[in-house]
Amino acid sequence: MTSPQQANAIVASRQADVVLLARQMLRDPYWPLHAARDLDAPRTWPAQYLRAAD
């Protein structure tokens, strides 16, 4: 499993309740951010992270 579209399709079609991404997360620790960008999902940051943005 390497593409966010594939993971989303599997869960959306109810073929699985969960998709495990261990190997892909080891290859790319920022995979969730890339997946959110590719799927046009909103990306939010915890408030404590926003304080460091200044």
Give the SSE layout.
Layout: H1 4-12, H2 22-27, H3 31-38, H4 47-50
Structure, explained:
Helices cover 50% and strands 0% of the residues. The longest helix has 9 residues, at 4-12. The mean pLDDT is 90. The chain has 4 helices and no strands. It has one domain (4-53). With 54 residues, it is mostly helical.
Mean pLDDT: 90
Approximately what portion of the residues adopt beta-strand conformation?
under 5%
The percentage helix is 40-55%
The radius of gyration is 13 Å
Number of strands: 0
Q: Low-confidence parts, pLDDT < 50 over ≥5 residues?
A: none
Overall shape: it is: elongated
Distance from N terminus to C terminus (CA atoms, Å) equals 36 Å
How many domain regions? 1
Q: Structural class from helices and strands?
A: mainly alpha
Total number of helices: 4
SSE order, as H and E? HHHH
> Largest sheet at a glance?
none
List the keywords.
54 residues; mainly alpha
What's the short story on this structure?
The protein is mainly α and 54 residues long.
